[in-house]
Amino acid sequence: MTLKYIPQRPPFVMIGEVVAADERHTQTTFTIAADNVLTNNGYFTEGGLIENMAQTAGAGTGYMAIHNNKPMPMGYIAMLKNVIITALPRVNDTIKTEVTFEQVLLNFHLVKGKVMNGDKEIASCEFKIFVNPEKPADK
């Protein structure tokens, strides 16, 4: 159940299944529904793709916290860099997202993300996430 790994709740959940997660990598899948709040004219928006990558990173952090018997921390996007979006997926497409935690500096996680639609990479970016271990995520 993905919802136990992220603080977001419907209608703002932009990931489906957590396929894999460890200290450095997280993979999720997500099937885009027609009623998703980040769709427009039958396509998942640029903002939806970025949120999908961020929630994938959050799911990895939440997964590791829960499996290490720690509270799930709250995280915030602090910076986006090198955002590349080459295509928007359509409603009913299933995208696969992978994030790699490149480095942790104090409470900042440097992360690279990419989104695949079938065998085509459609989006990527680098981002910095501020993780506040003192403030557990509300569920």
List the helices and strands and how they pair.
Blueprint: E1 17-21, E2 25-31, E3 39-40, E4 43-44, H1 46-67, E5 73-85, E6 94-105, E7 108-117, E8 120-136
Antiparallel strand pairs: 1-2, 2-6, 3-4, 5-8, 6-7, 7-8
Shape: globular
Structural classification? alpha+beta
CATH architecture: Roll
Biggest sheet, open or closed, and with what strands and sense? 6 strands, antiparallel
Strand content: over 45%
Q: Helix fraction?
A: 10-25%
What is the total tally of β strands?
A: 8
What's the order of the H and E elements?
EEEEHEEEE
CATH superfamily: Hotdog Thioesterase
Across the major sheet, the strand order is 1-2-6-7-8-5
Radius of gyration: 14 Å
What is the CATH topology classification name?
Thiol Ester Dehydrase, Chain A
Structure explained in plain terms:
This protein has one helix and eight strands. The protein is α+β, with helices and mostly antiparallel strands and 139 residues long. It has a single domain, classed as Hotdog Thioesterase (Thiol Ester Dehydrase, Chain A). The strands form two sheets. Strands 1-2-6-7-8-5 form a six-stranded antiparallel β-sheet, covered by helices on one side. The longest helix has 22 residues, at 46-67.
Features:
alpha+beta; two-stranded antiparallel ribbon; 8 strands; globular; 1 helix; 139 residues; six-stranded antiparallel β-sheet; 16% helix; single chain; Thiol Ester Dehydrase, Chain A
